[in-house]
Design goal:
The protein is mostly helical. The chain has 8 helices and 3 strands. About 50% of the residues lie in helices and about 10% in strands. A hairpin with a 2-residue loop joins strand 2 and strand 3. The N and C termini lie far apart (about 65 Å).
């Protein structure tokens, strides 16, 4: 599932289907979190634990003294819930740590670049005694990170992914069968219908 989903996300980005890609990418920590913490009942806790361990701790600048906003597990989980359940990429501060609110959240969409390098931006603006915390997230960047990390995690921990389902690629399964000549099929159906109505008409005339 991980490999196929990652492939679909990358195809969506290639075709500039940004919100299709982002919505799908935000489910990857759900899948990996379930594999990593199978006995944890809280999906929120699983999600945040896996994301922070594999991605979040690298998103925060260790030299940061101002506690700048960054893509923590709580931030990504909040975005995931808003986008998947409400259809909008809003950031809910009541679901974040009180010392790390995001007052203004922006999503950046842009066409693919030759070197696939994209950036985010984090700022804190002071207005007298009031502080405004902002974060600007690039959709391509977060999708690339989630895809790359989830794909690597799956390849290194295949034994943890024991889910009860099967994905059947019907085109692959039936690839060895000869192609169906639909014109011939329709011609035979038309012939059968014609013979049926002719036989029925003859029976009515007897």
């Amino acid at each position: 599932m991980i490999i196929r989903l990652v492939q679909d996300i990358r195809k969506a980005l290639e075709n500039e289907l940004y919100f299709v890609a982002l919505s799908s990418a935000l489910t990857l920590p759900d899948i990996c979190g379930k594999a990593a913490y199978p006995t944890e009942r809280s999906s929120r806790k699983r999600y945040i634990l896996w994301y922070d361990e594999e991605i979040g701790k690298y998103e925060k600048n260790p030299e940061d003294k101002d506690d700048m906003p960054y893509l923590s597990g709580e931030v990504i989980y909040s975005l995931r819930c808003s986008l998947l359940h409400e259809g909008n990429p809003s950031m809910k501060n009541d679901s974040l740590r009180t010392n790390q609110p995001i007052d203004h959240f922006s999503l950046v969409i842009e066409k693919a670049k030759p070197f696939e390098i994209y950036s985010d931006a984090s700022t804190i603006t002071q207005f007298g005694n009031e502080q405004k915390r902002e974060y600007r997230m690039n959709v391509r960047r977060i999708c690339m990170i989630l895809c790359n990390v989830a794909e690597t995690y799956y390849k290194e921990n295949r034994d943890k992914f024991h889910f009860n389902y099967e994905i059947i690629d019907w085109d692959e399964v039936t690839s060895h069968l000869p192609p169906i000549d639909m014109e011939k099929v329709f011609a035979e159906l038309a012939k059968s219908d014609s013979e049926f109505y002719q036989g029925r008409k003859m029976g009515e005339n007897e």
